[in-house]
Amino acid sequence: MTDYNWCHGPECHTIETQSRVRGSADNKVLRTIKITMYHPDSPRIWNYFCNQNCLMRYIQKHLQEIVKIAPRSKALETPIKIEKEKYESHRYEYNGNYDNPQRVPYMATRTTIKSVDND
Ligand SMILES: [Zn+2]
Fold first, then answer.
1. What separation in Å is there between the alpha carbon of 9 and the centre of ligand 1?
2. How far apart are the C-alpha atoms of 37 and 44, rounded to whole Å?
3. CA of 49 to the centre of ligand 1 (A)
4. pLDDT above 90: residue 117
5. Core vs surface per residue 44-65: b (16+ CB within 10 A) or e
6. What's the CA-to-centroid distance between 55 and ligand 1, angstroms?
């Protein structure tokens, strides 16, 4: 037996798609999408939302409650090292002659962010 959830999108049941139509002749409804959980033990976000639209509407509706779960009262920081290295590159100079650009070498600087072990 496969577990399932109903999509948590607050307006999922109002979106007009054929996949949401249920019921018989004069008793039709748009129903929330049923999501089959193929991996119920892994906490996948797509076990709870049928698409990105429903996910974003849920977050927008419950944003204040969600951020209260894990509030961020100060900035976090990650220690890094910056490495700068020179390397030879080139650019094109036209000098008014756009049909025959000249390839001109120059020394460029490459900046790389390196992570730092916190041991
Ligand atoms: Zn949905």
1. 5
2. 9
3. 5
4. no
5. eeebbbbeeebbebbeeeeeee
6. 8
Q: Residue 80 Cα, ligand 1 centroid: separation in angstroms?
A: 41
* Residue 37 CA to ligand 1 centre (angstroms): 14
| CA-wise closest residue to 37 among 11, 1, 13, 12 | 1
Tens digits of per-residue pLDDT, 23-58?
A: 999 999 999 999 998 877 887 899 999 999 999 999
Token duo for residue 94? 């036209």
- Which segments within the chain are labelled E, that is strand? 3-6, 21-22, 29-30, 34-37, 80-93, 102-115
Amino acid occupying residue 96: G
